[in-house]
Amino acid sequence: MNDSRTRLDKINTRIRNNPVLSLLIAVSTLVIGLSTFTNATRNLMDLLNGAEQRPAINGLWQAQVSYDWPNANYQESFKFAGSDTQLYGSATFTGSLNGILEGEIRGDSLRFITKTPESLGSGPIQEAIHRYQGKMVGDEITFVMQTEGGYSAHVPIEFTAKRSANPAPAKSEPTQN
């Protein structure tokens, strides 16, 4: 009884004689094939539909901002980074550097917040949240910034930031009108 069958022949015979194993292999092959095809189709559809690309927003931007209290004109800086829909970096508020939080960019619109401490006399420090919404057109971003919290109510501030080739100043001083 000389068995000249190879190991591969033995495995093949077992698979053919076991319908459950054959079905499992066939279903697995089908699932792998469909998932590969589905991703390829999705990528092709994105290409054909002209899926939105992230605008070239990364880098330094500067804006002259007039806040809603007397003599409050500042040169503010925004340094953006990120990829896809993520947006992070830093933004100045009255010249103080703050990290960008909850940053997001969709198409030509962006939004993020910054937080700053606010004090009044010897009272406790309160946190002010600055919510920025912007729309990018070319080398300009039109912003609306709303501050909430802190010690006083504020109206929305509108300003335009422009792309800058110069490094951001460490700290801005108020400018006179």
Overall, the morphology is elongated
Which regions have little confidence, pLDDT < 50, spanning 5+ residues? 168-173
Largest sheet: 8 strands, antiparallel, barrel
What's the CATH topology name of the largest domain? Lipocalin
Counting DSSP H or I runs of 4 or more residues, the number of helices is 2
Order of strands across the main sheet: 1-2-3-5-6-7-8-9
- Assigned CATH architecture of the largest domain: Beta Barrel
Order of helices and strands: HHEEEEEEEEE
CATH class wording of the largest domain: Mainly Beta
**C-alpha end-to-end distance:** 105 Å
If you average the pLDDT, what whole number results?
Answer: 81
Count of folded domains? 2
Structural class comes to: alpha+beta
Strand content: 35-45%
Query: Over the alpha carbons, how many angstroms does the gyration radius reach?
Result: 29 Å
Tally the beta strands.
Answer: 9
Q: Helical residue percent?
A: 10-25%
Keywords: Membrane, Transmembrane, Transmembrane helix
Transmembrane segments: 20-38
Explain what this protein looks like in three dimensions.
By secondary structure, this protein is an alpha+beta fold. It folds into two domains: 7-48; 59-163, Lipocalin, CATH 2.40.128. 23% of the residues lie in helices and 42% in strands. The chain is built from two helices and nine strands. The chain has helices at residues 7-17, 19-48; strands at residues 59-66, 73-81, 86-93, 96-99, 101-106, 109-118, 126-137, 140-149, 157-163. It has an eight-stranded antiparallel beta barrel with strand order 1-2-3-5-6-7-8-9. The protein is elongated. The chain starts with 6 loop residues before the first helix and ends in a 14-residue tail after the last strand. The relative contact order is 0.15. The model is unreliable at 168-173 (pLDDT under 50).
